Amino acid sequence: MTVQISSKLLDGSVLGLLSVKDYYGYALTQEVQKYIAVSESTMYPVLRRLKSNGLVTTYDEPYQGRNRRYYRITNLGLNHLKSISLEWSQFKNSVDTMLRGDIHE
């Protein structure tokens, strides 16, 4: 089944991964793609938006003569992740209830 993922949920997914460790752009895209079908061209605008909203910061590290731009979650990003996680949990529980037919009239 293919499900369209909202930008808020995609933001939360990226922030969730960054809450564990810093990633450079390509590696982060690869990690997200393990769980969600998303293109590289989708990921970089997400990262720019997260940075412009103060949810992540960046730093560069040299690698084989070039720089890799790493992304790090901020405290604001951690708080936003908690908010998204709570919303997702409530939504998921509601959908699970309906899928089980566990509704009360």
Structure description:
The protein is an alpha+beta fold. The protein has a single domain, classed as Orthogonal Bundle (Arc Repressor Mutant, subunit A), CATH 1.10.10. It is built from four helices and three strands. The chain is elongated.
Question: Which descriptors would you attach to this protein?
Answer:
alpha+beta; 105 residues; Tscrpt_reg_PadR_N; three-stranded antiparallel beta sheet; WH_DNA-bd_sf; Arc Repressor Mutant, subunit A; Transcription regulator PadR N-terminal domain-containing protein; elongated
Instruction: Enumerate the strands of the largest sheet in spatial order, edge to edge or round the barrel.
Output: 1-3-2
| β-strand amount | 15-25%
Order of helices and strands: HEHHEEH
- Span between termini: 29 Å
User: How many individual β-strands?
Assistant: 3
Number of domains: 1
CATH homology superfamily? Winged helix-like DNA-binding domain superfamily/Winged helix DNA-binding domain
SS-based class? alpha+beta
Query: What is the 3D form?
Result: elongated
- Number of DSSP helices? 4
Radius of gyration: 16 Å
* CATH domain class: Mainly Alpha
Oligomeric state of this protein: single chain
What is the residue-mean pLDDT, rounded to a whole number? 93
